[in-house]
Amino acid sequence: MSAPVYTFRDARLRSPLMRSVNALGAGLAGLGLRYPAMQEGKIIAAAQARSGTDQRLDADAMEALHRFVASAEADANLNTFGRLAVKNMLVGALSSRFAVQEWHQQHPALADEQITQPWIVIGLPRTGTSILSILLGLDPINRPILQWEARYPVPPAGLAGASEDARIARLSGEMAQLHALNPAIATMHPFGSTLAEECTAIFTYSLRTIGMETIAFTPAYGDWLDHADMTPAYAIHKQTLQAFQCAQPTGHWVLKSPNHLWCLPALLAAYPDARIIWAHRDPSQVLPSLASLNCAMQMQFTKVLDPPRVGNYWADKIDTAISAATAFDDAQTSAWCYHVQYEDLVADPVATLQNIYASFGTTTTALHQQRVTTWLRQKPQHAEGIHSYDPADFGWSAASLQQRFQTYRERYVKHR
Fold first, then answer.
1. In CATH, which of 3.40.50.720, 3.40.50.2020, 2.60.120.10, 3.40.50.300 is domain 5-412?
2. pLDDT score of 416 more than 60
3. 20 to 30 A Cα–Cα from 283, which one of 35, 91, 345, 360?
4. 21 CB contacts (<8 Å, ≥6 apart)?
């Protein structure tokens, strides 16, 4: 049986219940009421109640919350289902933040945990960073952040009983509901409670991440975020890793996120001995996929979706990321990362990993290589279906994108 093919249009809201919720919200909006209200004080109070703490929001996080909420209200054109989803996302993120901070206050020795030589995968979205982080995480000495523990970080799971933690099943149930509402999403990004998670999920605790822009179209927030100080985001990120590592002693973390491209100085200030891998792929292939993913994420939450507007917004963001990362690269006097080509990774994952390890003065083990080949055999690329996208949906052609990103392509992308 051939795999099902999905486009972002398949993400339209079909649920009769959610449509009824939207209709109810539209009726209230006609009376001048926005439901649910996204009042910042009530969001913070709800997060405190959910986390069971009395932690306060500092000025950095308060500014991020204010900017995101203001942009969501002004720009995102959210329907009622979208407002519920965005508010729940904010409450959940701040709840996790408060829980991690409280855990550190209760366990001050956590501050002594050393995060040593983490593997950090960076690169534009849709460049193979997810699969590369998963394969790195198959090395028995390495450990990625898992999706379920990023969602429910406290108490951190210990070695005893971690595989049976009830939070795994809880997130799996939530993901099943998401995929039932939006089956296209599973073809566009790897979801699974025990799969490797992006640093983006932890950055959400600080409300400073491009991940929040995938849920709602928030250009005013995004413009601020492009130049915001990410030091607070890396601070809570490191605190979270320290909590996880104390409960489960770890050799080396495997971390990944496109978000790092915007803020490489802050990344290396937080993790100065990081082993950084920069994945590259032709942006003319990246951007249609990225635009389609973001449209699929936002389609159920907005009253009106404008694919060319969404696509061109993300093209501009990618331009900003490339400019920031290239400027950082230009300023370095010695090698600071290893460059990986998407085509090489897809063609020969084991050889790619061997080359990565060798560049950092180490070697892959036979067991790691065996685990990689076994995982790839057990998890074929299109197990959930095929993500189909067309640059024309966003007002582009492959040639126009190639021309726009010609400098990046010539410098970083190997052409076969």
1. 3.40.50.300
2. no
3. 360
4. 80, 81, 84
